[in-house]
Amino acid sequence: MSPTVLDPQTTLDMPLSGVRLIEASAGTGKTYTIGNLYLRHVLAGRGVGEILVVTFTNAATEELRGRIRARLYQTLQCLQRPAAGIDPFLDALLASLGNADERQQAIDRLKLAVRSMDEAAIYTIHGFCQRALTDHAFHSGQPFEVELINDDGELWLGALRDWWRHAAYELAEAEAALLSEAVGSLDAFIKLQAPLRQAFETTLLPSAEGGMAACFTEWQAFADRLRNIADEWRQRRGELLDILLTSAALSRGPYKPAAVEALGDELDAWAEAGDLFALPDEFRMVATGYLHEKSTKKKRGSDPSLDDDFFMSCQQILDQRHEIANRLRAAALDEATAFAGQRVQQAKQQGQRIAFHDQLTLLHQALHGKQDEALAEDLRRRFPVAMIDEFQDTDALQYGIFRCLYFGQADTALTLIGDPKQAIYSFRGGDIFTYLRAKRDAGEARYSLDTNWRSVPGLVAAVNAVFGGREDAFVYSEAIDYQHVQAATEAMGKQHALFTEDGQAVAPLSLWRIPLNEKDKPPSKTKLRGDMAQITASEIARLLRAAERGEALLGERPLRPGDMAVLVRDRHEAAAVREALRQRDIPAVSVTRDKVYQSAEAQGLALLLEAVIRCNDRDPARNALASELLGLDYNDMAAIAFDEQRWLAWVDDLRELNRLWQQRGFMTLFQALLQRLDIGHSIAGGDNAERRLTNLLHLGELLQTASKTHAGMDALLGWYHQQLHDNADDEAELRLESDEALVNIVTIHKSKGLEYPLVFLPFLWGCSETKPNGRLTAYHDTHGRACLHAAIATDEQALCLAEKERLAEEIRLAYVALTRAQAKVYLAWGEVSVQGRRGSRAGALAWLLHPAQTPDDLNHALPAAFASGANLSADLQRLAEATPAIELCELPAATDASLSLAGDASPHLATAEFRGRIATDWRVASFTALTRDIHQVHRTSSPRGDDPVLNFPAGSHVGSFLHLLLERLDFTAELTSQVTGLAEQLAPRFGLDAERHRDTLQAWLRDVVETPLDEGGLRLRDIGASQRLNELAFDFAIGGVDIAALNARLQQAAGQPLASIEIDDFRGMITGIIDLVFEHDGRFYIADYKSNFLGGALGDYAPDNLRQAVLDRRYDLQYLFYVTALHRYLRQRLADYDYGTHFGGVYYLFLRGMRPASGPRFGIHFDLPERALINWLDRQLFAPESTHD
Q1: Which DSSP string corresponds to 279-330?
Q2: Going by CATH, does the domain composed of 596-732 fall within 1.10.486.10?
């Protein structure tokens, strides 16, 4: 049955009890209707505190409050001073008040309502739930005093890490490898699990009965099959490799002889290993699937030997392992969510805290619990009338609350008002299937609004044509049956401002046809995005120039920049448009869903805060100079970094800011940052100054709020870094920087509820296809039940359902975009290619403009409309011919003309000529740079044994990992938990598996800090935090290095031939970083950590071998630099400094060889360079520049 159309009379006649569903298409007066119904309830005797109005944002609640107050006051004025023709509804309402007593009663009730509007029950959904829980704490079972926290993400992170330690660290290696294949790293798993935290009545798939344990057991059952494959490999190795080498079907790239030989070695090692479950990556290369994938297209399937039983057995193993891994992924997610959810709930209960989203869950639970009827009765007495605005965005949890309260209840009224065609917030939980359920529940009590008061008649006709071309325009026709709307006319009292050019009305919808490229192929998405931004900006510039000449008018006035909006999907499209407008000197403002934490200002502020906290550390202080908030160029940064007086002044600034932060809090620090570092002036001098300053002030507010719950500088900075890397909440969305008349660049999601005279849709051809890998995919099954699928690529039916939902939301997004305009829309459309995907063929406009598509096209056959460009053009031509309001145009060419009129005078600009001289021998040199060309000597070492430390992975990334671990370890404290925590945090950066190496790292680093460094028993364990300085950086200006003299002196000191340093003489800077400087018994020592692999036996790390390794790699030169740098440093810091008294020597710690039982006999190279050599280096290497002129 079709819904009843709400006109003034039917709105007046609609019953004020029971459940009513009102479908309000875009621009048809939804808020106006809410105001009228509210007015009727007030006149019926309801107080404003009894009429609950719920919407979804704080801004919307304030708008509703204002509009309702104005409607009540307007009606009061009309009753006190009767006048006809205000609007049809008020005319009918006033006419229904037949006698003076009724009118006086209405006046009294309206006066009371207007005076009481501050007490009106107009809330967000969360605000209503909070009020219900607080006011009815006894019946809801909640504490009377609770702390509301904005987000419980940190609690979830901690709980999930606890689960990971509990579940993953105890696994055998084969099980750990399977879990790794299923969920990846801990960080990846945490991101994967995030959608489950607030999931309500949602089924997780695939089903994994028996949990993780069952999956591991099932995998272990393949032991015999793996042994058979290993045996067959050993027996047929040569034959199988020969197939791979000689097959004419295989592409030679992955199967060239060297690759096949390496493959054979890897499979040999696997077949001989004790653990056959640890399949090497190369195993897939002997599986039929990969073999066919890597066959040439012409010969694919032509070689039966590639279907050998061995290869097929390997494929079956991989398939079954993958299937088990998929179920294991779901099982792990299920177990982790249950474990972590309980931990999070306990933590919140103990702290008497609830998160923002908990309010809905707790109220739903209370209404459906043991005390449900008492609480529901209390709320119904308090709010006998309820109106839910934007109901299409309601999810199942929210609907469950209102359904429990109002459905089937006498003497109550519930009005659900919204537009299912504008349900575009699935990422926030908005659920079109919940709307469909409510529609069924409402039965015949359905109404609709059918008059568009926003858009000119021609544009309304054009939108009707676009969405009325097929019965299933919105895919789910049972939920959304598109009803044509009519445009408000002058006879209804509507005066439209028409858009005209050169005195002529223009077509309300210009359909720009995207052409094929020069190769008669669809353009690529990446190229077209840039092109469309330029074309759109060019058209806007053309219109504004015409407006300056009085030729482009909106009604009777010239078109202005603020009359136009460009609607985009994301920040990439927004940035492209903004840059194109900037190039043409057109002012613009961006309104997107981007987070302020994604801005350059957020990164720049992070650098400054880090420097303030670590104000005595050189690296953070130097990094902060690069903060874009300071606006320094390279010369400015170099001038500060290399001028001692300016550097000290900079460090003093940071120290003073540190003091202010500690003593007076974050906001004082933030204000001082702006003033002391002159950040405002720096920003004002650059591009997008208003946007950047808005971002910075927004960040300051967010940090100030966070400082109330994150006490201390380090805690607040840790929270801030977390926001930079995670998805923040809505409070972090970018704010509008200005209310000036600027061209609006708005995301489609943000544009909902807004309107603009002219709207450009240059990117609506795009779409976001369902991505089946690396995330949980949300969809609803054939019964409408919510599902999250952890392996949807393996479930064709689920993938089809998810793709159907994806397309349906794309269409609703297109509807929102196309209904924002009052007078004119520019829409670009055509076939666009996206590598590896169907491109624009899978988008909303393909479905709407080419109705030959069927639901089967979503996953199988390509739509017939795209068989040729002619078919596509014919569909568009038919649409334009049938609808005069639609103009089919060729895509205009972009021009570079700016907004300035052609007659404007421009200053003559000329490039300055540089006449100076640049010194070519000035450079910044480090030990690595000086020794880059030295040939490394590779000496014979012992084969690898079974020592896990000596066999630990090697490479520069491992060295960096170990350096960072040792830098952050407190040598004097308990090590096990430190190593575990730091390894979990740091290992992913360097591609290492912290779980796999946990036990080895704990034992190894315990040995490192416990090993005596000398015969006196000195250990790293004895060095406290106050006695050590990590990562001491130095930069010294040098006048001119005599490389030959340096070589000769070092050869003499070594007493044996050394590899020469083959570089030219130079001037400039010597730079370096000393791993560790520590003090013991009044003497200062240097320690450098070396993770070099010298051999598989402890004897390879004996003193003679270490000395040779030092000389081979020229570490002798490295530590002489270090000693000389520390020598100069101590000379400046200690009044009575003497090299012989205060300097203790250099320890090069070869970490793999350090064992407490062996003492300094293995793994430790010590040297105390002669004073004369250091003094010579001090004079020669760091001599003033003038001595070399």
Answers
A1: --GGGGGGSHHHHHHTB-GGGTT--GGGG-HHHHHHHHHHHHHHHHHHHHHH
A2: yes
